[in-house]
Amino acid sequence: MTAETGIGARVRRKEDVRFITGRGRYTDDINRPGQLHAVFARSPYAHARIGSLDISGAEALPGVVAVLTGADLAADGIGPLPCGWMIHSRDGSPMKQPPHPALSQGTVRYVGEPYAVVIGETREAAQAGADLLDPDFQELPANVDTASAQSTAPIHDGIANNLCYDWTLGDEAATDAALASAAHVVELDIINNRLIPNAIEPRAALGDYDAGTDMLTLYTTSQNPHLARLVLSAFVGLAPEHKLRVVSPDVGGGFGSKIFIYSEETVCGWASKRLRRPVKWTADRSEAFLNDAHGRDHVTKARLALDAQGRFLGLKVSTIANLGAYMSTFSSSIPTYLYGTLLAGQYTTPAIFVEVRSVFTNTTPVDAYRGAGRPEATFLLERIVETAARELGMDPAELRRRNLIPKDAFPYATPVALVYDTGDYQACLDKALALSDYAGFPARKAAAKARGKLRGIGLSCYIEACGLAPSRLAGQLGAGVGLYESAEIRVNPTGNVTVFTGTHSHGQGHETTFAQVVSSRLGIGLDQIEVVHGDTSQGQFGLGTYGSRSLAVGGSALMKASDKIVTKCRKIAAYLLESKPEDIDFEDGVFRVRGTNKAKTFGEIAFAAYVPHHYPLEELEPGLQETAFYDPQNFTYPAGAYVCEVEVDPDTGITRIVKFTAVDDFGQVINPMIVEGQVHGGIAQGIGQAMLEACRYDRETGQLLTGSMMDYAMPRADDLVNFDLDVVRTDCTHNPLGVKGCGEAGAIGSPPAVINAITDAIGVRTLDMPATPLKVWTALQAGSAAAKGS
Amino acid sequence: MTGFGDFLGEFGDNMTVRVTTTVNGKLVSGDVEPNTLLVEFVRENLGLTGTHVGCDTSQCGACTVHFDGKPVKACTILALQAEGHQVLTIEGIGQPGNLHPMQAAFQENHGLQCGFCTPGMIMAGIGIAERNKGASLSEETIRAELEGNICRCTGYHNIVKSIAAGARDM
Amino acid sequence: MYNFTYHRAGSVDAAASRLAESGDAKLLAGGMTLLPTMKQRLAQPSELIDLNEIDGLKGITVSGGTVTIGAMTRHADVAASAEVKQAIPALARLAGLIGDPAVRNRGTIGGSIANNDPSADYPAAVVGLGATVVTNKREIAGDDFFTGMFETALDEGEIVTAVRFPVPQKAAYFKFPNPASRYAVVGVMVAKTASGVRVAVTGAGPCVFRQSDMESALSGNFSADALSGISQDADGLNEDIHASAEYRASLVVVGAKRAVAEIA
Questions:
Q1: Per the CB < 8 Å rule, is A711 touching C250?
Q2: Which residues in chain B touch residue A22, judged by CB atoms under 8 angstroms apart?
Q3: Is the minimum CB–CB distance between B73 and chain C shorter than 8 Å?
Q4: Chain B contact for A682 (CB, 8 A cutoff)
């Protein structure tokens, strides 16, 4: 039974039946009797003071039930939305965190910022009310640009230079010394483009307050409903935790954007309490573009020092990171601890120093987006390594090989605070080169040239730190909370099992993967296991799903809980079989007295646990239900090598990916089918960043220019190819499953491989993402102009 | 509302009117306003929430249904336009235990992750299979004809496989 | 979407008289542009007159060297039509490149040309193939139909009923689609017809236009090489985040060359 359904099996997903038959249940599918509709009034300006706001016209409109503003919110004691990770500047001072009210209070700081909400009997009525709001906006100077933000007018009172923090990591003196003494120094200016996540399910919230019980139920599109409840109770003051239930039903993609605590769910919950009726809001796509936290947006200068043999001696990095107008839930940590710590990559670089200045601009808040910090680090590193190889005239694969951390060097402490537990980077690279037929590339390039096309090949060797997070370390680094995960296994009297997890699935297939883990451990069939998540009234607690943590941390908690179940079952079996727990063997769902044929099945034990006639109550409590919390001892370190091959049409700049190879080391894999799907999706998003996706604001007005799917290009089926995947396996050494996490790898590893391939094809040193046909064509024109000039 | 003569019908601003149409083989009626979209009628009046809304510019395809047998975007048709026509939604093609071959192929080939774009993908996939009936269905054709459906999770790799398999089994 | 009055017209005459009575009614053809525009609340017609039930406006006939396409014929039907593929394969191909399959199942040729989006594909076919636009009142030469960005020669209350395409000797269409919207960043229709060579460009400028330098060059020598010395002036071309004017100008030349190469 378990060989076909347990760990390592390509089990078809349990959750699929409801999704493929239209029976999924997403937040917007839920409606409550008497429900009202919320429409948010949003700033049309990038920066403006609200002189006065007359709500009487809107209030008087038929069908409008209430018009609520930031002042009402403040009067009710609903606090600002917090940022949960404290960063200290190099001088020891804490980051400057401006208040982030759920509805703006006096000043709006980005286009789309909500300043009021109109609640109506219908969405149309609420919209008509919102249309009548015409505040006396007094426009203020606005800046959307990352690089110049420190020298533009302050966005928040009391925050000089728009600087949130000026953070450093690493040994600057040693790095400077390495740069000074190096045979070669390669410098590169790098922009990591700003992205808009665009999960296909728009965010939604439905607050449903029951005045009879004083219980507020908040249905919302969250990757982490327990964390949402904690923050909304403890920090925002929406309701006491025992009077707040957060339900996050099926979630239609997140990619980070549904981690955070937003204005809209806060307001829907609050308004429902105030009006004593359910209040619902579903974003339209335009709102999603304007208001879902954006991703990335770095401007970086980097210098890599190499010796005469091409060995890396030091890396110095200076980055300006755009936080947007306010700090989102995790935004401070992304360009620091999820970025700077990854700058060793897979390499033995002995000295690394990074400084990050995070700045406020008049743009949508920026926070974690698939990969979160690690794609930025990987892009920088793999671009500068590739550039170094070209400038030194070395094969990029060989230059990497010379600098890879050897297989026998683990555990390996990097100069930027991490200890990698295990890996085999050489094997990943070798496999990727073989699978991509790297050796055969020159012939393919020549053949393409004969057809008038330019072929290029690019590598990327990535590493990521996943499985967030070892709590003690996270605490030292400024995290407001430890990052444990919990699991509960409730064995029902008839022997089937309900599993509660604090993680949540927004497409990752936990209902299947987690069931496979439990199936393997308890020896029962997958159809005997139900995984429950997404409802704070069911599972006890959990930090949710992001940072490729669910299996590594949540799955480990599940292993611990399974072990506790087995331990208790042995006691029950020993009692029933008149033996001792230590003499009971457990295999394939059967408890057996060692060396005898005296046995009880898992189901028999479960039944005996709940409805015993005779029980040694002083030794054994009835029931069979165990909870476990797991705190990882370290991050996990998935790694891999990617190879991208492209063909460019020089007349149009149109670039096609012709082959994409990914070799990943995720440690033990529970369900290879699901893992491959995660890699496919990650690569697609990485290719999207590299070739298609660009969030653009108008520099003068601060208006979002890419505010719809008509303007913001995302990968379609015909932009991509089938991906060639393989794996290398070195199991994580410190969690019980040996797993590392796979959700973000593709998005981390692929962008530099793509850009390395395109720059190789067209013979330019740098090319900013996204490498659109326009940019490729422009670079080719500049190249041919330069060639003509010389 | 179907009438005789040149004017087939006229319905005023802010006036709910009755629309009668065939959805998943059943004649259904509901009160809508002129500006009610077909997808709103299907989701809100009929409670068929398998058809999703992912954008407001007719790009994402999450709302794809069949209208008189052909895939269309239900977010860009008025409910009143369905009067007298045939609408088929994801709920109408197969049920748990009795899946349509295209549904089964999506599960078998892991052609979905979060599931949100999936109903639209399946309805579009059936359209691809039907348009190319009798012809061999290449990966290139499937990719080209999926341009009106955006998936953010799968990278399309397994969706393309699913549609190829589903078309073979149809 | 703001609300409106909905009329389902049973005939062109009924639609026309309703249109004449009402100040700001709009005709609803495929709705692929109008309805999204209304959803974004960028348009607020008081009435919509739905043409979708007028069967007489639908259909394709080929006779006497002319392909006639009813105004309410869907793009998908043009793309899939064996007769169109036989007579003017470039027209079928162009129709099959509009939007996406679901959009093509609703969008119509009449709606597309009456809207005259500068990035729409059909204007390149109407002008490039020297078509005639038939309305409920008259016939308008394709060359005279598109008068400016979102502007046409249609009078108030005038309704497109069909488009007549003379079958060319050969024709080809090149399209560079916008990666997000899939509209034409540049589309070039090149046709060799009995009355000469026609090159029509959509997407590049504020309105579809004929590239007369290319037409002259190709008249003497219908080959891609004939276009080698020709450049497109970038002045006045569209600029947006996806394409600069210079890039569009370059694509016009590349597109014309490729279209010619396909059929020369």
A1: no
A2: 48-51, 89-91, 119
A3: yes
A4: yes
Question: Can you tell me whether residue A590 is helix, strand or coil?
Answer: strand
List C-alpha distances in Å: B102 to A461, B98, B141, B168, C6.
38, 12, 17, 9, 37
Confidence of residue B14 (pLDDT cuts 50, 70, 90): low
Q: Is C13 on the interface with B (CB under 8 A)?
A: yes
What does each C-alpha distance from A395 to A75, A184, A764, A787 come to in angstroms? 65, 16, 16, 25
Tell me which CATH homologous superfamily contains domain B17-92.
Beta-grasp domain (3.10.20.30)
The pLDDT, as a whole number, for residue A478 is 87
Tell me: pLDDT of C178 over 50: yes
Confidence of residue A546 (pLDDT cuts 50, 70, 90): confident
Which of C31, C53, C75 is a domain's end point?
C53
Domain count within chain C: 2
Residues 481-510, chain A, touching B (beta carbon < 8 A): 506-509
| Partner chains of C (3+ C-beta pairs under 8 Å) | A, B
> Is A714 in Cβ contact with B117 (below 8 Å)?
no
pLDDT at A482: 86
Contact C105 B71 (CB under 8 A): yes
Tens of pLDDT, residue by residue over A390-449, are 999 999 999 999 999 999 999 999 999 999 999 999 999 999 999 999 999 999 999 999
Give me the residue from A124, A694, A774 closest to C247, CB to CB.
A774
Mean pLDDT of A542-552: 88
Torsion region of B159: left, alpha or beta (phi above 0 gives left; psi -120 to 50 gives alpha): alpha
What is the structure's pLDDT at B2?
35
Residues 155-174 on C with a CB inside 8 Å of B are none
Q: Does any CB of chain C come closer than 8 Å to the CB of residue B95?
A: no
Best mutation target, C5, C37, C105, to test chain B (most B CBs within 10 A): C105
The domain containing residue C43 runs over which residues? 1-53
The ranges of chain B annotated as CATH 1.10.150.120 are 101-169
Query: Model pTM?
Result: 0.97
Tens digit of pLDDT for each residue in A440-474?
999 999 999 999 999 999 999 999 999 988 988 88
Q: Is A285 in the B-facing interface, judged by CB distances under 8 Å?
A: yes
| pLDDT tens-place string over residues A748-790 | 999 999 999 999 999 999 999 999 999 999 999 998 776 665 4
Q: Does C182 touch chain B (CB under 8 A)?
A: yes
For B101-169, give the CATH class. mainly alpha
Residue C77 counted as domain residue = no
- C192: domain CATH number is 3.30.390.50
Is the Cβ of B71 closer than 8 Å to some Cβ of chain C?
yes
Between CA C106 and CA C98 the distance in angstroms is: 11
User: Between residues 100 and 139 of chain A, which touch chain C (CB distance below 8 Å)?
Assistant: 124
- Report the run of H or E that residue A303 belongs to, with start and end: strand A295-306
* Residue C141 touches partner B, C-beta closer than 8 Å: no
Helices and strands counted in chain B (H then E): 5, 6
Q: Which domains does chain A have, with CATH numbers?
A: 2-22+484-630 (3.30.365.10), 31-140+201-252+258-291 (3.90.1170.50), 295-468+634-789 (3.30.365.10)
Q: Determine the pLDDT at residue B5.
A: 40
Q: Decide if C92 is inside a domain.
A: no
In this model, does residue B168 exceed pLDDT 90? yes
C258: which residues sit within 8 A by CB, 6+ positions away?
C172, C174, C224
Q: Quote the CA–CA distance of C14 and A223 in Å, as a whole number.
A: 54
- Round the average pLDDT of chain A to a whole number and report it: 96
Test B147 with C101 for CB contact under 8 angstroms.
yes
| pLDDT score of A790 | 44
Q: Which residue of A has its CA nearest to C239?
A: A774
What is the CATH classification number for the domain harbouring C10?
A: 3.30.43.10
Residue C160 lies in a domain: no
A468 contacts A542 by C-beta, under 8 angstroms: no
Is residue A114 within 8 Å of A42, Cβ to Cβ?
Answer: yes
